[in-house]
Amino acid sequence: MKFDPLVAQIIVAPNFDNFTYAELIKLVKKGWLKKMVSNKKGFTRFNKTESFNVEVITQLASAIPIGTTEKADDKHALLLSKLNHYKAELLLNMGESEAYKELYLESPELVDELQPQYNKARDNNTRILGKIRAIEGLMKQNEALEKI
Q1: Which end of the chain is more exposed for a tag (fewer CB within 10 A), N or C?
Q2: Which residues contact 91 (CB under 8 A, 6 or more apart)?
Q3: Are residues 57 and 107 in the same domain?
Q4: Alpha helices (H) along 64-110
């Protein structure tokens, strides 16, 4: 079964039960549901009232345009583009770091000039790797939501 990505995000949220209960209470306040609490163990049930009209709800739902699939594809393409950019940048910085190492091995007397630049390239590698991991994590999360 395929869920809307927004619905899937809500379902996997840690506070899903609280969200569901709050939505049911909103429907009680609108008069669409009636809250019934049993005397035994305090179980709560909700029943539809006469004013609960399925036709009105379907009309309201159909009036809202749904373009989430296009937005999801655009987001995925944007994330993929950024990921490829950061991977290319990481390779470039790794090459720069290796060049500084080679220069040091060839000319150890240049250590004072090479060391700060090598450290900067290494720091950039770490920063870019963090960005790559963040984007990959987000893409994995989105893939998991799409499977729901």
Answers
A1: N
A2: none
A3: no
A4: 68-106
Q: How many CB atoms lie within 10 A of CB 50?
A: 8
Asked if residue 131 and residue 85 are part of one domain, the reply reads yes
Is residue 28 within 8 Å of 45, Cβ to Cβ?
Answer: no
- pLDDT for res 6: 67
Domain that holds residue 136: 68-147
Residues 14 and 80 in one domain: no
Say whether both 54 and 34 belong to one domain. yes
Tell me: do 137 and 109 sit in the same domain. yes
CA atoms within 13 A on the CB side of 146: 11
Task: For 54-93, give one letter per residue: b (16+ CB within 10 A) or e.
Answer: eeeeeeeeeeeeeeeeeebeeeeeebeeebeebbebbeeb
CB atoms within 10 A of CB 142: 17
Q: Is 42 helix (H, G, I), strand (E, B) or coil?
A: coil
